[in-house]
Design a protein that fits this description.
Layout: H1 2-25, H2 44-69, H3 73-87, H4 95-126, H5 132-150, H6 153-163, H7 176-215, H8 223-237, H9 240-250
Helix pairs in contact: 3-4, 3-7, 4-5, 5-7, 6-7, 7-8
């Protein structure tokens, strides 16, 4: 006990001495000034740098929309949500886990596409090798190719008819304003089909448990309380997460 008290007193004395030393020295630390100023550019390079910053800030504000509507994120998060609903596990896994998993699966699937965009469009543009229009045209091609592979012709034709646009000779000539909504509803349809398949085995377990409870006259006992452990057991025994993630990933191939 005395030893602990001595250590505590020494610590207090050390802190007090350090405080006195700091105040005694009165060291003036430089404080950086951070601000935003608007000045007249002196060289053409200043114009280019300002435009690049403006484009970067604009793209950053649109990143969530790009992530949700122009990648595999929509299908992944919808399927994972259906899985949680089918198992009736309420908020397990939490939303943060599902969104994080869907986010990194999206990064994994979209990595080849955005690698091409960066190598062929972004890097040459930042190096002033190509113009902004050329960078947009080159960078949009791999993204459109990915979206067209997952978009049904019926959905694409629907928005082409609604927009009054002429049918393009090639899919790459389709505008993003027409391609994005067609891609989204195609993704939702595919996700709902996969969600239906996920519901079937869990519904069978619910029906079996409910029938057994009714035959035993246990009407007051919620079937969900009995069926949930069997659902978890079935899901673990068949290595459900492996099968679900594998099915999602292979659906994009």
């Amino acid at each position: 006990m005395n030893r602990k008290l001595s250590i505590f007193l020494l610590a207090l004395i050390f802190i007090a001495l350090m405080g006195n030393i700091c105040f005694a020295e009165n060291v003036d630390l430089p404080v950086p000034r951070i601000g935003i100023s608007v000045d007249d550019p002196e060289t053409p390079a200043d114009y280019v740098d300002s435009i690049k910053i403006l484009i970067m800030l604009t793209v950053l504000t649109l990143v969530p929309s790009f992530l949700v509507l122009m990648t595999s994120f929509t299908r992944i998060i919808v399927v994972l949500s259906f899985l949680r609903s089918a198992m009736a596990t309420q908020q397990t896994p939490p939303n943060q886990i599902l969104i994080g998993l869907a986010l990194f699966l999206t990064f994994f699937l979209m990595a080849p596409v955005y690698t091409v965009v960066i190598d062929d469009a972004v890097s040459p543009y930042l190096a002033n090798e190509i113009s902004q229009d050329e960078a947009v045209e080159i960078g949009s091609k791999p993204i459109k190719e990915f979206m067209l592979r997952q978009t049904r012709e019926k959905d694409l034709a629907l928005f082409l008819d609604l927009s009054g646009e002429e049918y393009p000779e090639t899919g790459l000539e389709t505008s993003f304003t027409t391609l994005v909504p067609a891609f989204v509803i195609s993704e939702l349809k595919t996700a709902f089909q996969m969600g239906f398949m996920l519901f079937i085995p869990f519904i069978v377990i619910d029906l079996i448990v409910a029938s057994i409870l009714m035959s035993m006259g246990m009407f007051m006992l919620p079937p969900v309380m009995i069926s949930l452990p069997f659902k978890l057991l079935l899901f673990v025994m068949v290595d459900g997460w492996y099968l679900v993630i594998k099915s999602i990933m292979e659906s994009f191939i």
